[in-house]
Every structure is written in C-alpha cells, then in structure tokens.
C-alpha cells in the first residue's frame, strides 16, 4: 500500500491515554517503536501488535494499528496463528519478562525455533510489574520482593542465552532509553524470521535502577559493549577496553588498549553469524568486570515459518468440486 | 439378533442357507493379526451386498503389546442386517478368535449358542498360559454352550500359500495371510462376494505381487473350505437379505473422516480458509492426520502446535486474522484450552473446538469411549462465559454437525464446542454421500460496516463485526479485559460490565431461534416414556426404543444435537411425557443439564465402562421405569 | 442508614452530637493521596470505639495512574454502627473527596442530603477538566442535593506543617499529610479517639521523626478544626454508640489474611507442613505474599512457580510426598489448573485450591469482585471428576472455611476448591479472635495399613491410604490412567472403570454426611420466602432479610457454605418455602445448581457489575417476588 | 537406611509386565537404570520415579520403587513439589522428547534453572511414540510423519543446547544401547542439582534407525565423540580424528591425527566446566563431518533448590503457640 502522505511517529499513537506509571521505561520504548514504524513507512492497517498480559502488554492499546491484547504468556501462539492465516501481516509482539520467561517460556521457545516472521520485543524489567512487584524468572540473585523477602536465590533466566538455546535466528539486546533503540528495532524488523529483542526496561516502581549501570549516561560507556558486526569489540568511556579470546581457557578476557596494552588488531571482531561467539556474549556480563553487550548478538538466515506455511487461496469453485470428489472418493457403492 | 426367517438358497455343498435378519460378527486376534483390516474388508463386502451396518473397532492401548497377551488383543465388530442398523450390536453371533487371548477377552460378549471360530494352531501351551487359561479351553468343555469351529487356520493358510507357484515370500509373510483365510471363510458363511476384497489386495500390494498372490490364495482357500467341507450340521451358512436402504451413492465413513471433512466443508461454505491447529491426543489425533493430507487444494492449513494451549491460541489468532480457526483435542487437552476459549468468548471471535471425548478423569482411558465432557463443555470456564455446544450422533452425522458448528461460530462470532467421542472417531458406517452442491453457503463478511465500532452488534444476531487486520480503515484494538460496549476499549465501568455480560448471554441464548426445534426421532411426541439421549448413544437408544415399541411399550426417542443453547421447545416437549429416561455414558451429565433447565423429573441411566450401551440395558432400564 | 436516635453529648463548640445508629463513610482521592491508609486508620479507631463495622477498599486497576484522572481514584468505604453490621453499606452518609476525579466517580453512591467534604484546593481548572467536568461542580449548583463542606484542606495542612518547629520536610511530604488532616476531621465528626492513630504514626515513621511530627500535626489540626470552628448548622457532629458485640478480643482482618492463616491453621491441625504453590494473579496474590512472610516457624513453605499449571502440579507433588499441597489463584489461573486438578482427583491426593474470584470472562475485571466461578468449580473438568467446593462468606469466615477445606481434603483424599473473591480478599472486618487451642486437630496418617494396597479404601470415608514415598514397605505406583480397584495398577478393564467411577462419586457424595446440616441464618425454617445465597453476598443478603422482616415480610436467609456436596437436608429445607430468591454476583450459577439438584422453582437475581449487592436491590427483588 | 542385603538390578524391577514394543530402545534404558540403582545401593523405599505421559513415561510402573505417572509434560513440576515437601527423596524423572520439549518445555526450563536435585532422563526418540508417530520438536528436518507427510521443515529443538540455554548445571548425552550408559547415569545422579541426560532412544516402530550412526557398532566410532574431562577430543575407529578450535573463525575444526596430521597436544581438551565449549559441543554434530558428542558436556556446582527450600519441621507445640500469637498480632481490642 502506498500511503499518500508519509506518516510521522505521532500518527502511530492511538487516542487512548497511556496508563503506565509516570517515569516507566515503557514510554521510551513506545516512542522508539512509533518512530520505527514512521521511519519504515509502515501501513497501520497492515500492522498488528500482539501482547500477553502485564504492564508491557498494554502496549497495543497505544498504537494506532491493529492490536490484540491476549492472555498471559501466550502472545506468541496467537501471533503464530495469525501469521498462519495471513503471512503478510506486519506483526509485532510485546511481552514482559514474566509473560515471556515464566508462563510463556514454552511459546517463546517454539516461536523462535519456528522462526515466525514477527518482531518479538521482550520488555525485561526483571520483575512482575502489573501484579505489583514479585520476582520474575529474570530477576537477578538477591532481588527482594514480596515473594522473596530475603532476596531471590533462583538462578535467573537470561533472555538472550535462552533465545540462543532455543535456536533463535536473530537476537539483540537494548536499553529502553538508548538513543538508537529504533535502529535496533529496524534491524529486528528487517530480519526475515523472529527478530527477538530483549529491551532492558526500568520499572520505576518495583525494580527501580536495576539497569542504572547501563542507562546512566556516565556509567554506561564503561559497562556496555556496543556490538557492531565486523568491528573489534571495544568499550569504555575512553574506548580503552577490549575483548580477546583466550584459547587456553576457552574464555573471553578483557584487556586494556593503547599504551602498554594490547593492540586493537588482536581483539575479537564481532561476527553476528557466529553462534559460539553469540553464546559467549550472551553470558559475558555474568563475568565480573565484563561489560553488557548491546546490539545484535546473533543473526542468521533461515527459512521462515511463513515461507513454509504460505498458501494461496484456492478458488471457491475448485474447492467446491474437490470436496464433492473427496466425499465420493474411496470405495463407494450405489443403492438403487 | 440372529433370528431365522426363511431358508435361503443352498451353498456349494447343497446346504440350505438359513436366512436371518441380522448378525453381529467380531474378528479378534493379536494386534499383529490384521483384525482391523479383516473387519474393514468384511464391512465393505457387506455394504456391497446391500445390508445396513455399523461397526466398532477396539484397539489395544499399547502401541505394540507383546504377542499373545490379553492386552494386545485387537478386535473389530460389525452388525449388519436386512433392516436399519443403529448400533454395532450387543452380543455376538459369530466370534472369530485368532488366539487364546482373543478368546478369553471376548467370550463374555458371545451369545449362548453362537458360533465361535478359532485357529487351533494358535492354542499352544505357551499362548494358552499367556492368555491366563489354566488349561486348553477348547478341550475342557468350557465352551459347551457355544457352537465351536476349531480349525488349523495357520496350517491351512500355509498350505494355500505353498500352492502359489513361484511366490517368494518369507515364513512370516505366509503366516500373516491367515487373516485372509479367516475372512474368506466368513465371506462364505454370509454369502458375500470376494471380488471387492480381491481388488483391494491387488491395489494394496501392487508393488509386492507375491504378497498379493498369497493373500488372494489364502482368501480363496478360506472361502472354498467353507463351501466344500462337510461340517457339523449345526454349522451352516447364512443369508442376510439386503436392507431397504434409501437409494443413492454410499461409502463407509468413520467419524474422524466425517468430522474432518465437515470442517473443510464448513470453512468452505463460510468462504474461509480452515486453520486447524492441534496437538496430538487420542482419539482426536486422526483429525489432524486427515486434514494434513488435504492441504492447499481444500484451503486447509494444519498446524501441530507445541501444546494444547498454543493450539487453541493459534486457532484464535487465525480467526482474528480472518480465517476459520479450529482446534481439536480430547478431554484433558480441552481442559488446557479453557483459558484461551474464554478469550475467544470475550473478544467474540469464531472458534470451533472439536472434543473427541474419551474415558476420564485425568488421562483416564485414552482408547475407550465415554461422553463425560458435557459438564466441561457447557459450564467449564471461569466467569460467565456462555458458548455453543453441539454433538454428533453417528460417524456420518459428524459431517453435518461439523458444518453446523462452523456456521454458528462464524454467524455469531463465538466459540462452538463440537462433541464427538472415541467410539464415533473410530467406528464407521455406510454413509449416504450427500450432494455437496446443495449445501447452502453462509459466507463470512470482513467488510467494514457503516459507523464501524468493533463491538457494535448486528441487531438480529448480536454478533459483532469481524473486521480483520489488513483492512484499511478498520484499525482497532481488542483484548481480554472487559471491553466498552461499542468501542471495545478497555472499560472497568460497573454498568458496562453488566451490559456486556448481558449481551454475551443474550447472543448465545438467542441462537436457540436459529436451530431446529427439537424433534422426536422415534415414537409419539408425547406419552408414556421418552428416552432422551445425546451424542453417540443415538444408535443403541434408537434401537432400544424400537424394541420397546415392538414389545408393546409406548416409547419415544428424543435425541438432542444442540446441547447449548437447547432447542426452544424442548422443555415443553419433555413435559408431555410421563416418564423420562436419560441413558448416557457418564454419571448423569445431560440429566443434570435437563433438570437445571426444566426442573423436570427424570431417571438418569449412567454407564461408564468405556463401552457403548447395549440395547438390552436401555430396554431393561426403560421397562423398569415404566413398569416399576 | 444514618437514622437519628437521641442527642448525644456536645462537642468542643457545645454543639449537640446527633446520635445515630450507623453511618457509611467513604474516603476517596487520588491513588497517591493515601486513602487506604486513612480508611484503615479510621476503621481501627472505630473498632476501638466499640462499633461493629465492615469495610470495602476499591483500588484503581492501574499500578500508578496519572494524577488526577478518574481511573486513578482510590477509595475506602466503611459502614459502622451501634448494631450488627453485615455489609460495607449501600449509600454514603459521608463522602470525603480529595479531588474532582474522586467526586465525579463517587457521587452516584452518595445519599441525598448526605455530607460531602471536599478539598477545594484540589479543584483547580486543570484537575476539574481532567476529571471530565465542564465547570467547577462546587460552584454550579450541581451539589445542591447534598450538604457540602468545602475546605482548603491542602492549605490548612501546610499551615499545620509549618507550625511544627524545626521539621525538615519537603513540600511534597507536607502536602501528603493532608490525608491525616481529613482523618482528624472525620475522627472529630464521629467522636473517635486519636490516640491509636497517633501511635500508629509514631511506629510507622519511627525512622523519620519529622514526618511523624508533621503527620501528627495535620491530624490534630483537622480534629481541632472540627471541634472549634463554626460551621453551617446542618453540619454537626455525630455519635454512634457502641454495638452489642459479643465479648472477646477483636482485631481487624482481611479475607486474604484470614484465608492464609486458616490454611496455616488447617495444615497444622492435620499435623502437616503447608506447601503453598502459586503464581501471582490479582486478587489471589496476597495469599502468597502473606504466607511467604510466615515461613519456617509455621511449617509453611511457599513456592512461586513458573505458571499456574506448575503451581498446581507442584502442590500435588507436595501432597504426594506427604505434606499439604495448596494452590491459590483466580479464575483464569484456576482454568489452567483444570487438567492437574483432574489428576489429583484421579490419584486421590489431598489438594486445596483457593480461588479468589474476580470479574470474568477471560482477563475480565481483575480488580473487581464477582462470584462467577461456581460452574467452573462444581463442573469445570473433563471426565466424571467430582470434588469438594466450599465458599467463605466474610473476611473473618475465610479462616474457618480454609480449615474446613484442609480437613476435607486430608480426610477424604480429594481436591477441595475454596471460593473467595476480590471483595473478601480486600475487605476487612472486626474479627472475634478465636481461641485456637480449642480447635480439634484432624491428624493425617501416612501409616501403612494392614493388607496395604494403594486403592483399598476406608470403609467409612472411602478414602484411600496416604502412604508416601520414603516409607519402607510401601513401595507402589500411581498415575492418571484408570487404576485397578485396590492395587492401583493400570487397568483398562471396563467393569473396573465403572467401579472406580462409582467409588469416586460415592466418596464425594458421602461427604454430605460429614458436614453440618443446612441451617437458616435468619428467619423461620419454612415459610413464605427464602433468600438463598453463597459466598460474599452473605452480608447484603442477611441485612436485606433483616430489613424485610422489619418491613413485616416473612423471610428467611439461607446461606450455603458447602456448595458440593450440598448439605443433605437442603432440598427438604427449600421445599418448605413458597418463594425462593437467589441473589448472586453472576448470571445465576447457584440457581442452576439448585435447580439441577432439587428441581425447585426459584427466582434468580443475577448481578455482575463488579460491585457487591446493595441491600436495597435484594429487598426490592424480594418484595417483587412475594408481592408480585 | 542400611539394606541388609545388597539388591541386584532385578530387585528394582516391579512385577508389572513391561509393555513397550518389542525392540524398543526403552528396554535397554530400563536395564541400565535398574543396574544404576543396584550399583548405587539405592533404597527402593526412598526412591521415586516421576514421569509425564508417553511411551517413555510408562517407566515408573516397571520400577520396584515409588512411582508417579502424572500428566503430559508436567513431570518436572510434580517432582519439584515433591522435593519441596521432602528434599531427601531420591527422585528421578523420565520424560519423552515431546513431553520435555513440546508441552513440557517451560517446566524443563525452570527445573533446570532452579537446579532441583533430581535426575532428568529425556528419552529422545525424535518422535511422539504413544500417539503413533507424529513429529516432535526434536524431529530432525525432513522427518516424514502423519503430520508432516512431505517431511518436517521446522528447525528442531536440540535438547542439550536448550538445556544449556536454560542454565542447566549438568548436561550429558548418551545412546540407549551404549554399554556404559549406567556410568553416565551415575554421574548424573551424583551431581548435586538437576542431572540432565538426553538419551538418544530408538523407536523401532515410528522412527527406526535415526540413531544408527551412533548406535551401530561399526558406524559409532566414526560418528561419536566420547567426552572425557581433561582429555583431548579424539574419535574415529582408528582414533585418528581430533577436534581443534580455530580462533580466526571462532569455530571448531576436525583434523587428522598422526602422520602428516596434527599432534594430539594441539587438540581441544574437554573441560566439563567450560560453558563456551559446552555450547559448541551441543551443536557440533550439526556441522557436516563432525561427530556427535556423548558423555558429560557440562557440569558446574551450584546451590540446589533443596538447599534453598529445605525446612525442618517445627514442633507442633511451638506452631500451635505461634498461630495463637499470629491471630492475636497487630492491633487488637477487647470487647467486654
Ligand atoms: C493466567 C494468568 N496468570 C496470572 C496473571 C497475572 N499476571 C498478569 S501480568 C503478570 C506478570 C507481569 O509481569 P511481566 O510479564 O514481567 O510484565 P510487566 O508487568 O513487568 O511488564 C501476572 C503474573 C494473569 N493475568 N493471567
Ligand atoms: C494434555 C495431553 N495432551 C496430549 C496427550 C497425548 N500424548 C500422550 S504422549 C504424547 C507424546 C508422546 O511423545 P514423547 O513425549 O516423545 O514420548 P514417547 O511416546 O515418544 O516416549 C502425546 C501427544 C496427553 N496424554 N495429554
Ligand atoms: S509498575 Fe513498573 S513496569 Fe508497570 S507501568 Fe509502573 S513502572 Fe512501568
Ligand atoms: S512406539 Fe516407539 S517408543 Fe513407543 S514403545 Fe513402541 S518402539 Fe518404543
Ligand atoms: Mg516484567
Ligand atoms: Mg518421543
């Protein structure tokens, strides 16, 4: 569809009052998504947002596109069914960390392995927002909540790691307030298959500040590694830290660059298509002193679900005839 | 009942064929003995000879149980006759038992004086013990009440095979042909043509000509054995004259086939693609298999989901996107879909849920039949969540009920539960093939109505408009939180919730105006006794009412196809009977429903043994009720 | 109803206090205005003054709605009196509205002539518009039907705060104290002591002494304002004399607390550890929070599962291993547990499922109350899967029903569904603290009986023995496929299935012998009219029957606590009434159940607006029914 | 508990007739498990087998221990609840690939991340056996079945990869007929936490021969890599093939050993505790020419669920008193 006039980001905002808590990270994401749609020249009538249940999942109501707010954890299954019926829909899914990794873990696994051509936005605030602050499977160790008054002790699910384990074809990570969030969203959208983006989102009410190190302008440069395909992995406010791979221990190592340090040419170069690397990056920040990688961790080309299931509509007359034939197939006999 | 009528034309030995009105035959053997095929072929030959018939296959629960065990016994039963046949038959006139396990498992169903044919080669010491017999039942007089024909069927088969010149087959392959030998004998016994079976063998083993030849040889040998051997006088051939069957083209159809094809037909009549989303579960799986085969040319997409919940959600997603989403499962699987079905009801999207019921609770008896999911269907959801429930009554009827389910789902934008069961799924019956071009289409509309709002309703049906993503100018949002009347936006308003709840209820209640008034299947429209049933008990109930009438007891058969909403005139109809008997294969679920709707006095006749009703059970219960 | 009785002792201005029998007060404001705390503290002061009372908090659905919006309004209602109070009250005698949104949202519930107290500082042009008013409602005569007290509460609060010497507080903190100013005024209005509130402030802000001081100052200022200011003559203080309440120690208790503690108590009486396995969902979540706090010392383990299915399965796993498995959820979550509950019924393991019902269908109205999961509870499972259903009638009653649920689950080795709802969960009432040492224990036994077989039953209860893994000599297997009577091995046998189905049904039916006969809560045991209710409608129904009797209409109140099995005498009891009215917060689910069981004529009074019944609604419906 | 006489493998067999198809791989696993229990001197009264639904899940009936045959896909949740109640139970879980990776995917994820101290045996026959041969999420591309008549086209879930993504603490792979299967089971059992073993199991009826390359005595040596912690990775009938890591491409490479080939000292040495290596091994056999690794891919020490939730029973009298106090806590008042 050719839109006569190009739509701006605001044109993708519905008339519904946005009802997240003031200061919630979801606002920034909403703006980035609206900008992405505008930049993509998305046709609102062919765009649909699915969601489960949770604060994040209210998202569809705020978009001037089609939207389906479904049930907790199952958004991916609804989106899959919709794409089965209409593979040409431009479908997005918004789901919280509880929605995606607690009740919806199984559907996340399967939407990824089937490579359904949607953008999957996992809003990870490491908490159950809507139900008022219980730990989610993504909550880090020690998270205090009404269900873990002494701090959580369950090993958290790491979304990107899980996605890679689930054979995802595109895995990216971003921070809610990241300036170039929309660029990552565009990459995810351009990907043929499930564009999975974990968005680290601040819940100002129940888990404020868990991502301060990554979102605070001062702290972020030393704590985040912006991944660029084909570029060496360098970070730090002074861009003086680099990543190398130590083959003896088969482990990544942080090194200092420049004077007395390592030369940039010795650094690991990011290769989006390398699964071993991606796996390593997905757990990198669990190593003390290591930065948190942002950007596209992994991508590979693979047949989409839609390519496998796409089906043109057969003509009514021909189906009518086929059904007639079907009913009369096999052994039949006449009774006179 | 194998009642003698008049003598028929003699057989090859000049024996008189005894003409009988109907007969019940069961083929039983080890899972590896090919009993389902034997039964299926006999069914075909029988249909071709003009009898009416009904069948009931019974599989072992195990995939491949060890040979010779009782739990490995597979059987196939057929009831055929010169009159209308409604059930697979209560008691057996003929049992073919290919081994001791088959004998011990099935003996209880054999009528005294009936014919039992056994392969005595299979009665080895080891297999006799495996079946749980202390001694050989053929020798200890324990079968004196029956007419027993003990034949070395395996030996005879081997002989027949050896006679096939140049056939290169293994010993195993030879032995396996024994089911054809037995089939040949039974074809002779009931004066059936071999031709169709011979054709079938040729097609089936087209690529294995030697196998085809030995099987045909075994079939011939069995037939000829009957025709030319001197047997004890009490063993003689029968004739079952053709039934008065409405003219037309017929085929055998199983419930699984009929429901699958009915869904295809229903989607087509709605001018939609069918999106069948399912997760394998016995006995529903066959639908997924059958529909997968059809595919593209029939506008059918199938989707094997990761679990039942995803299957239901995907079906709803497909409906949301504008096609006809259908999900199929069985009791425990449908239980898992409950929450998703609630969303379909709340967002008012079409959805058909086929529940092929099986024995419960929990995993229960996956391979046995039961109709114990009526409660779950009518009432099994959180919130006030009414939807439509319809049930099929026979294998062939699954076709029309599936179409009806599609029609109501699309017209009223609602989930519809279609109830079949294990018996219907597996059993088959001769089906008068309808002329599909005469079916009235009910095309769905995705058009944007004037003043479009997602929850503005059609004043007649109370259905909301089905505007789907991809439609220019129709952008809107829906969801599971209560929606504002009209706009569909989230609304926590108290009065709005009342209004929407009323709309949902009135919409479903109103469907009663769009379904046929309840008819009486047999007997007068008021009187002394109504036997009220639903689903697959149609056959035995109908036959029982027939028998009651024959016995001089005024009785009527009411069969309910639309279980929710119920037909408008049902309460009044029931009020016209002095006695109401409700036989069902559960602990009394329809009885509860009827009592709650009509506060009527009725007698519930529950049965949950995993097997269909016997006609006699219903007759007895009815007599006791009316005669006290 | 605020009916004047006799004049009371004068206030600080020498004004006569009007003595009234009861009053309904609602505090309403923005979510950030602290209305729940204000209400809670007023409740406490009221309880201490000897009134009976009931409360109803109403939260916004959003976590933090934008300030000043109608959907951000939070309110707390209290009904208190000199007589027994059964409901949170129908119409308001006093409304405190802290902003325009609170006024517009709550005005419909205010009685004509009632007192409305507003903070006029909050009626800015912006906030008036945000609330949806076209003009200032305080100025346009739209409130003429009420007595309006418009006060610059924010200004007064700021003044009071400034008077606190040396307090270093922010402007925001100062403004926030305005709820205490309002509370002070209302304490004066109803002659309540400030002491308990002052204590509470001191404890709550022990670490923030300045905050404590300004809040106390605001409280005092509000109280003194009332006591010493000249107000319009129609605004005068009241006295509500103490009620005749049975002597004892009291506390306020919410349903969430009571049910949680009842589960702890029930497990303890069974001499088991409590394994509470749940997944957060409104309004059930509080139970998980509360029980998590108790932990070890109470033999309580809590487990936040990955989803509702896992929660139910883990609870069953815990019961299998010998502790008391309990799972708590709300409608959609319970729907997901259906399949697992079926397994508990089939394997006959104890399991308590607490369903804190909310508005449905689907996600519905998570923060609103409803009792629409009765169908799901009684009938919502595949297969013939009976279990026990009990329902709580008031916040305090949740304690005893939870114990009863535990008792039945353990004694009869069965799942038990305990129904509460959003209203019960959040509302609180003064609770006569029981002497726990008087509760009769019902210790569970894991001992191996003589001739142990996993499905040998106790002849009395029909319960099977609960032998748990870890027990020497008790090794056995159980599962969801039909089990052989006695041994519990897998059995596909037809007759066995019938036997086991009967056992399961008889076991649950038999529980009717172990529950109290149905009593009449109010009125004669037979007569002209029975109003029959269940669950949280107890209060309004009871009050309505009271009112009917006062109005000279012979009426009785029957409140059903055991919903399945129903009390043995219920049918007979109902038969003794000419008219039966069944008010419920759903589309008529108990009505269906009663009709199906007793074929009785009754009038259903459904209401699904997400709010409790008003007494007057029931009175009107009852009058219409009996007077025609 | 001290058993007076040591039990033999047969003593762990129940009196129930085993009802798998003749020739099913499950028989070999049953024998190996019974042997493992015997070797471990397991107390039957303290041992419990959980299972879901499927052919594999009939397993508990054949063990002379406690057993709970639950519902499809949820075995892990039942086991978790049982361990919550009684952490000292010696609990095993048997689940098919459908049970574990289709309907049960979410519970597998969570039992692994919680590190519940059980042995998780995933019988992977890459098919739904009990329901007669539909593809499972583990079915490889091209698998023909009644639901994929033209061959499956969905990317399969790889059990070990998925388990690693789910933060498993112990991941092993084995073949049903492998002689030393019992040794691997013992390792899994000895592990504190979830001992996850993917057992490649032949379904003779519906998926016969998918593992021929790994189970056939002649083919296996060239197609399997037996992992030994601390040992270089070598395979082949002649033990002439080795694995190296190419840092330039961050990928594993197969090399020839011996004459003209690479020296064994240059090979990758298996380190069970290295996650990067484990991730690489988990997908190794998707590279043409690479062997399928068998043995322990990964293990690490971590706090168990039981350690976190274990709770001694408080005395009845003390609980009685506490409840009394609880009821009387908070603001109370007396009415006289
Ligand atoms: C079946 C079901 N179970 C539970 C809930 C309650 N619930 C709603 S949202 C939610 C979790 C929210 O957390 P998350 O997915 O992380 O989203 P967030 O609110 O943090 O954006 C829960 C438990 C529900 N609505 N439905
Ligand atoms: C809720 C539910 N859904 C579906 C089924 C049907 N079902 C039983 S086992 C099974 C899959 C079996 O495959 P797998 O787990 O791989 O075990 P296998 O039989 O191959 O050992 C299915 C779909 C069921 N019993 N319950
Ligand atoms: S609770 Fe947290 S996630 Fe939810 S809207 Fe508020 S800030 Fe955002
Ligand atoms: S169907 Fe396959 S997995 Fe199941 S018992 Fe038979 S061979 Fe084994
Ligand atoms: Mg979250
Ligand atoms: Mg399998």
Radius of gyration of chain A using CA atoms only? 23 Å
The number of E-state strands of chain A comes to 14
Helix content of chain B: 25-40%
Oligomer: heterotetramer
What value does the average pLDDT of chain A take? 95
Helical stretch count of chain A?
11
Return the string of H and E elements of chain A: HEEHEHHEEEHEHEHHEEEEHEHHE
Q: Which spans of chain A of ≥5 residues are poorly predicted at pLDDT below 50?
A: none
Main attributes of the structure:
heterotetramer, A: 336 residues, alpha/beta, eight-stranded mixed beta sheet, three-stranded antiparallel beta sheet, 11 helices, 27% helix, globular, B: 628 residues, seven-stranded mixed beta sheet, six-stranded mixed beta sheet, 23 strands, 21% strand, disordered N terminus, binds thiamine diphosphate, binds iron/sulfur cluster, binds magnesium ion
Structural account:
The complex is a heterotetramer, with two copies of chain A (336 residues) and two copies of chain B (628 residues). Chain A is an alpha/beta fold and 336 residues long. Chain A is built from eleven helices and 14 strands. Chain A has helices spanning 26-40, 75-85, 97-101, 105-114, 159-165, 181-190, 212-215, 220-223, 275-282, 305-309, 316-327, and strands spanning 47-51, 66-69, 90-96, 118-124, 127-128, 134-135, 170-175, 195-200, 224-226, 234-235, 241-246, 251-256, 292-299, 332-335. Chain A has an eight-stranded mixed sheet with strand order 2-1-3-4-8-7-13-9, sandwiched between helices. Chain A is globular, with a radius of gyration of 23 Å. With 628 residues, chain B is α/β, with parallel strands linked by helices. Chain B is 36% helix and 21% strand. In chain B, helix 1 (35-48) runs parallel beside helix 6 and helix 4 (153-162) packs across helix 8. The longest helix of chain B has 20 residues, at 209-228. Chain B is globular, with a radius of gyration of 27 Å. Chains in contact: A-B, A-C, A-D, B-C, B-D, C-D. At the B-C interface, helix 12, helix 13, helix 16 and helix 19 of B face helix 12, helix 13, helix 16 and helix 19 of C. The complex binds thiamine diphosphate (2 copies), iron/sulfur cluster (2 copies) and magnesium ion (MG) (2 copies).
């Amino acid at each position: 569809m050719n839109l006569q006039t190009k739509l701006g980001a605001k044109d993708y905002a519905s008339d519904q009052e946005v009802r997240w808590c003031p200061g919630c990270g979801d606002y920034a994401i909403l703006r980035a998504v609206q900008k992405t749609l505008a930049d993509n020249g998305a046709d609102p009538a062919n765009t649909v947002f699915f969601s489960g249940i949770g604060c994040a999942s209210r998202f569809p109501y705020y978009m001037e596109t089609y939207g389906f707010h479904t049930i907790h954890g199952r958004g991916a299954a609804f989106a899959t069914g919709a794409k089965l019926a209409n593979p040409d829909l431009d479908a997005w899914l918004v789901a919280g960390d509880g929605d995606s990794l607690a009740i919806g873990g199984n559907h996340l696994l399967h939407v990824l392995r089937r490579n359904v051509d949607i953008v999957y936005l996992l809003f990870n605030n490491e908490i159950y927002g809507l139900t008022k602050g219980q730990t989610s499977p993504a909550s880090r160790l020690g998270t205090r909540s009404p269900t873990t008054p002494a701090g959580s002790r369950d090993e958290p699910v790491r979304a990107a790691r899980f996605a890679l384990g689930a054979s995802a074809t595109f895995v990216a990570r971003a921070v809610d307030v990241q300036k170039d969030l929309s660029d990552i969203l565009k990459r995810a959208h351009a990907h043929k298959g499930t564009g999975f983006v974990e968005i680290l989102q601040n819940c100002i009410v129940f888990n404020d500040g868990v991502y301060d190190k990554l979102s605070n302008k001062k702290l972020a440069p030393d704590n985040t590694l912006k991944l660029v395909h084909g570029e060496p992995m360098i970070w730090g406010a002074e861009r003086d830290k680099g990543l190398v791979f130590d083959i003896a221990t088969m482990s990544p190592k942080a090194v200092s660059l420049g004077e007395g340090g390592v030369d940039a040419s010795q650094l690991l170069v990011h290769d989006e298509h390398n699964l071993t690397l991606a796996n390593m990056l997905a757990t990198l920040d669990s190593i003390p002193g290591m930065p948190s990688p942002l950007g596209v961790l992994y991508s590979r080309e693979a047949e989409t679900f839609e390519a496998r299931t796409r089906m043109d509509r057969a003509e009514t007359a021909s189906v009518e005839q086929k059904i007639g034939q079907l009913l009369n197939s096999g052994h039949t006999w006449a009774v006179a | 009942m194998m009642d003698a009528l008049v003598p028929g034309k003699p057989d090859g030995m000049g024996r008189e064929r005894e003409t009988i009105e109907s007969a019940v035959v069961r083929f039983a053997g080890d899972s590896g003995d090919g009993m389902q095929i034997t039964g299926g072929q006999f069914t075909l030959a029988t249909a071709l000879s003009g009898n009416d018939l009904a069948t009931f296959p019974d599989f072992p629960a195990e995939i491949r149980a060890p040979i010779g065990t009782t739990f490995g016994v597979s059987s196939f039963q057929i009831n055929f006759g010169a009159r209308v046949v409604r059930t697979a038959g209560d008691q057996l006139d003929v049992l073919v038992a290919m081994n001791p396990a088959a004998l011990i498992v099935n003996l209880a169903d054999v009528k005294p004086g009936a014919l039992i044919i056994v392969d005595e080669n299979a009665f080895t010491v080891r297999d006799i013990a495996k079946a749980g017999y202390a001694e050989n039942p053929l020798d200890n007089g324990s079968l004196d009440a029956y007419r027993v024909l003990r034949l070395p069927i395996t030996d005879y088969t081997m002989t027949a095979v050896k006679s096939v010149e140049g056939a290169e087959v293994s010993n195993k392959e030879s032995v396996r042909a024994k089911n054809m030998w037995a089939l040949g004998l039974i074809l002779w016994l009931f004066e059936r043509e071999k031709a169709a079976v011979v054709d079938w063998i040729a097609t089936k083993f087209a690529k294995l000509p030697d196998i085809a030849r030995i099987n045909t040889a075994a079939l011939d040998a069995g037939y000829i054995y009957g025709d030319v051997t001197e047997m004890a006088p009490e063993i003689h051939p029968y004739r079952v004259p053709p039934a008065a069957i409405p003219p037309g083209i017929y085929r055998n159809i199983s419930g699984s086939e009929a429901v699958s094809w009915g869904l295809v037909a229903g989607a087509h009549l709605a001018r939609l693609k069918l999106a069948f989303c399912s997760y394998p579960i016995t006995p529903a799986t066959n639908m997924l298999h059958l529909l997968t085969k059809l595919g593209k040319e029939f506008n059918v997409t199938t989707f094997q989901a990761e679990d039942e919940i995803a299957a239901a959600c995907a079906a709803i997603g497909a409906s949301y996107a504008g096609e006809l989403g259908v999900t199929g499962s069985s009791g425990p699987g449908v239980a898992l879909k409950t929450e998703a079905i609630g969303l379909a009801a709340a967002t008012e999207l079409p959805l058909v849920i086929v529940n092929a019921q099986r024995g419960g609770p929990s995993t229960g008896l996956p391979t046995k039949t039961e109709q114990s999911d009526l409660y779950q269907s009518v009432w099994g959801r959180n919130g006030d969540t009414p939807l439509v429930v319809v049930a099929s009554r026979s294998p062939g009827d699954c076709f029309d009920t599936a179409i009806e389910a599609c029609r109501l789902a699309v017209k009223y934008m609602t989930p519809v539960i279609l109830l079949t069961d294990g018996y219907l799924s597996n059993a088959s019956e001769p089906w008068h093939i309808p002329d599909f071009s005469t079916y009235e289409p009910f095309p769905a509309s995705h058009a944007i109505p004037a003043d479009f709002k997602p929850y503005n309703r059609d004043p007649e049906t109370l259905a909301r408009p089905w505007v789907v993503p991809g439609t220019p100018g129709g952008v809107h949002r829906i969801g599971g939180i209560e929606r504002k009347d009209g706009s569909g936006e989230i609304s926590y308003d108290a009065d709005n919730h009342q209004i929407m709840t009323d709309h949902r209820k009135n919409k479903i209640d109103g469907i009663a105006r769009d379904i046929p008034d309840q008819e009486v299947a047999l007997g007068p429209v008021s009187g002394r006794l109504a036997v009220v049933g639903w689903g697959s008990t149609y056959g035995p109930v109908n036959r029982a009412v027939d028998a009651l009438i024959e016995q001089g007891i005024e009785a009527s058969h009411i069969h309910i196809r639309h279980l929710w909403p119920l037909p408008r005139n049902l309460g009044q109809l029931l009020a016209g009977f002095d006695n109401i008997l409700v036989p069902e294969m559960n602990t009394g679920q329809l009885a509860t429903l009827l009592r709650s709707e009509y506060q009527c006095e009725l007698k519930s006749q529950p049965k949950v043994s995993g097997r269909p009703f016997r006609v006699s059970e219903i007759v007895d219960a009815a007599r006791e009720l009316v005669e006290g």
